[in-house]
Structure formats: structure tokens, C-alpha cells
Design brief:
The complex is a heterodimer. Chain A contains nine helices and twelve strands. Chain A is an alpha/beta fold. Chain A has one domain: P-loop containing nucleotide triphosphate hydrolases (Rossmann fold). Chain A starts with a strand and ends in a 17-residue tail after the last helix. Chain B is an alpha/beta fold. Among the domains of chain B are: about 270 residues; about 55 residues, no CATH class. Classes of the chains: A alpha/beta, B alpha/beta.
Chain lengths: ~270, ~475
């Protein structure tokens, strides 16, 4: 399968974040996107999943030639897109196991049902693989979870739902060294001809455990450089400044300091 | 939206297609006057004191004003209702003639076969009397009395006289007075000292006659150290002319006794439901109200605990769901009159489609209620921009050593939560249902399994077409 992103522009609250992203991912590949804070990595992942907060203004995303952008969020998921979120939601009153079972059921036809026995077996195995607390299936979705537990729960859902394209948005943040290893190994274990991942991260650490095939660097809403694993080492050693210099990029966040004008706070427009 | 229309269509059809043709032996006709009250009492062959009680209540009813709070009830025309009907035999319909859509609705609600036939007017067991008793022989052996209140008045007149109208006097409010003068049916339970009834006792009340007022009267007495769980189910009948329902539930829990009263109320969306529920708790007694309000057009209900004995404990866990054209004004009352009493109120309100849902609660710590503790939690979710909700708590403290905690939240369903569930492949409407079911889970988990399942189905039906 093939996920193709072409000239993607997206905005939130009238601020353009993505400014022409081009990226092609095939199943069987493991991609990583690196880049400084605030360059649009998380926005890209949210837009692929279809978060309604972001508005696509230009460009396209297709899945095996089908227009992904015209699909609802749940449809995208059922087509095989998965997003492990940076800040997973807490939802009270619904257990993790009911939630995951409902998600699996949503992939089946009306007369098909998730086999309970198989489900419990798979869930148990996934919980063990991720070294999570065995009471996890009976707890409410992410409620009272530590940051690390929430992240592991995202990976658990990925393992259960078996997507074709898994986007992992800073799955490594908030994980300690041991958890990082467990999560990394579990992601790596997903590798197959039917699976691709897009791993968004600041750091090299997570990528130590994952056999990455493609690495992209994103700056100011665009992918500015793509390559292989060697890019990871370079970023880790030298940061991102060299790319900006190499490509002549002026960092927008430092360039756009606007003064606060007193008049902008309290203008009595009605009196004029 | 399609399914909503289907349901509306079903509601509409009841009026014409599913009204059982009933021949009544006793019918007091429309309207209420002293003669009607006397006729009811005479027909039931009641003792003199009950007739006196009814007459006094009737006079009080006439002189009392409508409640000064909550929904406007001025549209009620008391002459439009029939206050007593005793039916014999209806003309039975053939189950095969019932359209598929109706059967489907019953299936969706998970209503048992026998119930379905009754609801569709195929079977003709009737209103004004308890139609469904799950009495168990063992109960009788334990000395537990469980029957309808009319029968109790005949068979146990002294016991009824001792407690009847004591916890909820007929002077309490206009609808308590109304019930007191025309009451009929309801459940009577007496649990003797130290007897613990393991299985929940249950009864179903159904409104199944055109403009039939329902004025059932329930009286439960839990003797010292005894315990009982009573389940009142009012689940499905959909009917389409204004109907008035004014019930009274009186509960007396003696020293060390325990009583739980669970209700899942789903009156059809044209019923005005005005119920006075109150429990009197002696020393170390425990009362729990589990109160679910899904249906009715106007609903006013505030289950109360009077914590009269030291160490008495009261709990109310309730939900109210207001959809299109519905006004739910519900809540709880906890009146602490003795030291070391404690109470908990958990209220969950949901509204959509222009419905209005209010929490109205009273917590009072009297002068003697030293070290009394109360915890109140009321949460509301509003599912769209056209529905509304108010939280109206009254807290009174008359001594220096009492503690009341009050937490309230009102929120919209979070876009982020919806996105999260949908990103796992769950459809928008199913995701919303899951969030709502999660929200009322603290209530649902308190219900017996079959009621929890039925509630689940009800909420799903109410939520149909909530998105898109």
C-alpha cells in the first residue's frame, strides 16, 4: 500500500502551519520525521488522521490512489491509518477493553463479531509485551494513567488494531529509559510488508530500537531534507542549525517578534 | 436522522393502531370532585379512615397552589383526566398484526416477549394495578409481605394505617394531595426484623389507557436490621395524549435497616410525571435511591432522605436525560436531623435536541446534626447548542460542626474525546454514545444487570441521530 502526500498546506486559527509537505510512504518502510519544536510535525500527523481543528487549504493525501482527505476520521482508521497521540485523552466510564473491542468490531461487517476468547488472549499478550499492569483492560480509558502508561496504551491499541500506516506522534516523550526500550522494541516488532510507520520525534533515543529506513527533517512546515539513518546521527551530534544554514532558512519564530501596541488592548471603536 | 423519524412514526402510530379497545366496569369519568373520591373508596370497599384521609386530601388538593419552582404546570387541566378506571377484558389483538417497526423497537429495548405483547396491546393485563409481580415463595416463609397496596389495605389494615401518609403527609405538596385522594395500586412491602431479602423485588407499572392518570402509592417498611432492594421499572410504553402521573413512595427504614430503591423511568414523551419519594431513616439506617429518568415530557422528582436517627446514611445516585420536548427537573434532598449522619448525592444530567435538564437539590443540616457530612456531585453534559441545563443547589447548615462538599461541572462533549474514539475507527454517533454511557456509568453500575442492559438500549435510542 502507498500513502502519498502532495504539496500539503494546512492551517489552524488562520495560521498556516504546513506549507507544502511532500511525502510518500510504502508499507514495509519505517519512516522517521525529525525537526525542531513548532515546525509542524504534530500538525502533519493530526492532518493525516483528520483532526477537525486543522483545515487543509491546498494539496492532497491519497491512500492507494483514494482521496484520504474526503474521508471521515473513523473511515480513515478503518482504512488502516493509525495515530498514536502525543496527549491521549482520558475518557471516564469506558474500560480499555470495551473501547478496543468496539474499535475492532467497527472493522467487521454487521454479522461478524469479535471472538471474545481470541480478543482476551490477544489483549493479554499485548499487555504482557508492553509490560503493563494486568488490570489495564478493566481500567477506564487513560484515566489516572501516568504519562508513560498513556503512551504504552497507544502502542497497545496499535498492536490490537494492526493498522497499515501508524503515525506515532512523539511517542517517546514522557517515557523513562526502560519504557522507551519496551515501546521501541514493540514498534520494531510491527515491521512487515503490510505495515509502515511514521515516527515523529525530537531525539535519537527511540530510534536506537527501531530499524528506520527513511529519515526526514522538517523545518518551517516543509520537509527540507530526506535520507537514511545517517541523518539521525548528524542531527543528534549537530542539532538542526546546519540544515538551516545549508538551505538558507530563516527561522520564522525568531523573525516575527511583533511589539505589543497598547492600543490593541483597549480601543473604544464605538466612540469614533 | 432517519431513525429518529422512524421512532416518531412509531410514536404516532400508537395513538391509532395500538390502543386496546377496553371495556371498563368502573370508570369515574373525566374530572375530579368529592363524589369521585368517594366512589373510588367505595368501589375498593375501604375502611372509613381511608375515606376520611382521601376526603381531607381532596380538600387540601383544591386549596393548594401549583409548585412555585421548576417547569410551568399551568397547562394542566385537572378536569381532563380520568382518575379511576377498573377494566375487565380488552379485545385482544393478534401479535401477527403488529407491524415490524414496533417489534423492532421492542427488540432494541430488549423487552421480554410477554412484555412486548402487553405493550403492543396484544395482551390485556391492566393499569391502575400492579401487573407484574415476581413474588417468590421463600419471601412468604420469611414473613415478608409483598403485594399491591390495595391488597395490603385489605389484608394488613393495621400495618398500613400505622405508616400510611406519615412520611409524605397529604399536605406536603399539591401532587402529594392529589395522589392521596385518588391513589390506586402501587407496591406494599414489609420486611420483618433482621430479615435480609437477597434478591431484588420488582414490579412494573405501565400506563396503557388513554389519558389514564396513574396515582400509585408505594409503602415500604424495613424493620430493625432488615434489608431489601426494590426495583421499580417503568420502561417503554409510548403513548400520545397528555397523561398525568403523580405517585408517592414512602419508605420507613428502622434502626440498622437497609433499603435500596432503584428506578429506571422511561415514560413516553407526553407524560407529566410528578412524584414524591421520601424515606425516613432511624438510627444507623441506610437508604439508597438509584433513580434514572429518561422519558416523560415534564418530570419533577427529588427523592429525599430524612436522616432522623444518629448515624443514618442516605445516598441518591441519579441520572436525567432530556431530549427534544422534554423538561427534566430532578435532584435529591437530604435532611440531616441527627448527629453523625451522612449523605451522598451523585447526579448526572444529559440534554440534547433542545431538552432542558435541571439539578435541584437540598441539603439541610439541622441544629442537632453535629458532625453531619454531605457530599454532592452534580455533572452535566450538553450535547448540542439548543439544549440547556441549570444546577440549583440549596445548602442549609444550622450547626457549627457540619460539613457539606459540593462539586458541579457542566460541559459539552469534548471534540478531542470524540476525535480520539473516532481515530480508532468508531463511528461518530457510536463514539458519542460511548462517551455518554461512560458519563452515566457511576449510575449504570448500581443497577441490576438486566436493567443496566435496558438502560443502555434506551440511551442508545435516545441518542439516535445525535450527530449528523
Amino acid at each position: 500500500m502507498e500513502l502519498v502526500i502532495k504539496n500539503l498546506h494546512a492551517k489552524i486559527d488562520n495560521k498556516e502551519i504546513l506549507k507544502g509537505v511532500d511525502l510518500t510512504i510504502h508499507t514495509g518502510e519505517m519512516h522517521a520525521i525529525m525537526g525542531p519544536n513548532g515546525t509542524g510535525k504534530s500538525t502533519l500527523s493530526a492532518v493525516i488522521m483528520g483532526n477537525p481543528k486543522y483545515i487543509v487549504t491546498e494539496g492532497s493525501i491519497t491512500l492507494d490512489g483514494e482521496d484520504l482527505l474526503s474521508m471521515s476520521v473513523d473511515e480513515r482508521s478503518r482504512k488502516g491509518i493509525f495515530l498514536a497521540m502525543q496527549y491521549p485523552n482520558e475518557i471516564t466510564g469506558i474500560t480499555n477493553s470495551d473501547f478496543i473491542k468496539a474499535a475492532m468490531q467497527a472493522r467487521l461487517g454487521e454479522n461478524e463479531h469479535v471472538s471474545l476468547f481470541k480478543f482476551i488472549k490477544e489483549m493479554d499478550k499485548a499487555v504482557k509485551d508492553l509490560k503493563m499492569n494486568p488490570d489495564l483492560p478493566h481500567r477506564y480509558i487513560n484515566e489516572g494513567f501516568s504519562g508513560g502508561e498513556k503512551k504504552r496504551n497507544e502502542i497497545l491499541q496499535m498492536k490490537m488494531l494492526k493498522p497499515h500506516f501508524a503515525i506515532l506522534d512523539e511517542i517517546d516523550s514522557g517515557l523513562d529509559v526502560d519504557a522507551l526500550k519496551i515501546v521501541g522494541e514493540n514498534i520494531n516488532g510491527m515491521q512487515s510488508d503490510n505495515f509502515a510507520s511514521l515516527i515523529i520525534t525530537h531525539y535519537q533515543r527511540l530510534l536506537d530500537y527501531i530499524d528506520v529506513s527513511n529519515v526526514h527533517i522538517m523545518v518551517n512546515g516543509k520537509i527540507v531534507k530526506s535520507g537514511g539513518k545517517e541523518l539521525i546521527t548528524k542531527v543528534d551530534n549537530e542539532g538542526y542549525d546546519w540544515i538551516k544554514v545549508e538551505l538558507g532558512i530563516v527561522d520564522e519564530s525568531t523573525n516575527k517578534k511583533e511589539a505589543i501596541i497598547l492600543g490593541s488592548c483597549a480601543v473604544n471603536k464605538g466612540a469614533k | 436522522m432517519k431513525k429518529n423519524n422512524e421512532i416518531d412514526a412509531i410514536v404516532g402510530e400508537y395513538q391509532y393502531g395500538f390502543k386496546t379497545d377496553v371495556k371498563n366496569v368502573v370508570d369515574t369519568g373525566k374530572g375530579l370532585n368529592e363524589d369521585v373520591v368517594r366512589a373510588i373508596s367505595k368501589y375498593k370497599n375501604e375502611p372509613e379512615w381511608m375515606l376520611d384521609f382521601r376526603i381531607k386530601a381532596f380538600n387540601k388538593f383544591i386549596s393548594m397552589p401549583l409548585p412555585s419552582f421548576g417547569p410551568d404546570l399551568s397547562f394542566l387541566n385537572f378536569d381532563d383526566y380520568t382518575y379511576y378506571i377498573k377494566s375487565t377484558k380488552g379485545v385482544e389483538k393478534d401479535w401477527n398484526d403488529v407491524p415490524g417497526a414496533i417489534k423492532d423497537t421492542f427488540d432494541k429495548l430488549g423487552i421480554p416477549e410477554a412484555e412486548k405483547k402487553f405493550l403492543a396491546g396484544v395482551s390485556t393485563q391492566f393499569e391502575s394495578e400492579v401487573v407484574y409481580h415476581n413474588t417468590i415463595k421463600e419471601l412468604e416463609e420469611l414473613g415478608v409481605i409483598f403485594c399491591d397496596t390495595d391488597t395490603a389495605l385489605k389484608n394488613y389494615p393495621d400495618l398500613v394505617k400505622q405508616y400510611f401518609g406519615k412520611v409524605v403527609p397529604y399536605t406536603d405538596n399539591k401532587f402529594a394531595a392529589l395522589n392521596s385522594c385518588v391513589w390506586s395500586g402501587g407496591s406494599f412491602i414489609y420486611v420483618p426484623k433482621g430479615v435480609k431479602v437477597e434478591k431484588p423485588l420488582q414490579s412494573y407499572f405501565r400506563i396503557n389507557s388513554k389519558q389514564m392518570g396513574q396515582f400509585e402509592r408505594t409503602l415500604i417498611i424495613v424493620d430493625e436490621g432488615a434489608s431489601v432492594h426494590y426495583v421499580e421499572g417503568c420502561t417503554a410504553p409510548i403513548y400520545s395524549e397528555d397523561s398525568l402521573h403523580a405517585a408517592i413512595v414512602e419508605i420507613y427504614v428502622k434502626e440498622g435497616g437497609y433499603c435500596r430503591y432503584s428506578t429506571v423511568q422511561n415514560w413516553s414523551n407526553n407524560i407529566v410525571n410528578l412524584v414524591t419519594k421520601r424515606a425516613y431513616c432511624e438510627k444507623n439506617a441506610t437508604m439508597e435511591w438509584i433513580d434514572g429518568n429518561v422519558g416523560s415530557m415534564v418530570n419533577m422528582k427529588y427523592p429525599a432522605c430524612i436522616l432522623a436517627g444518629e448515624g443514618a446514611k442516605g445516598t441518591t445516585i441519579s441520572i436525567a436525560f432530556a431530549s427534544k420536548g422534554q423538561y427534566q427537573d430532578t435532584g435529591a434532598k437530604m435532611i440531616h436531623l441527627a448527629p453523625n449522619t451522612s449523605s451522598t448525592i451523585i447526579s448526572k444530567s444529559i440534554c440534547r435536541g433542545g431538552g432542558k435538564v435541571n439539578y435541584r437539590g437540598t441539603v439541610k443540616h439541622g441544629k442537632e446534626a453535629y458532625n453531619a457530612r454531605s457530599h454532592v456531585e452534580c455533572d452535566t453534559i450538553i450535547l448540542d447548542d439548543i439544549s440547556s441545563s441549570d444546577t440549583i443547589p440549596f445548602n442549609f447548615v444550622q450547626n457549627q460542626k457540619a460539613r457539606i462538599e459540593h462539586e458541579a461541572t457542566v460541559s459539552k462533549v469534548s471534540e478531542e474525546q470524540l476525535f480520539y474514539l473516532m481515530s480508532r475507527g468508531i463511528k461518530a454517533n457510536d463514539a458519542l454514545q460511548m462517551i455518554v454511557m461512560g458519563f452515566i456509568e457511576p449510575f449504570a453500575r448500581e443497577l441490576p444487570m438486566e436493567y443496566a442492559v435496558e438502560l443502555n438500549q434506551l440511551i442508545k435510542l435516545e441518542m439516535t441521530g445525535a450527530i449528523g
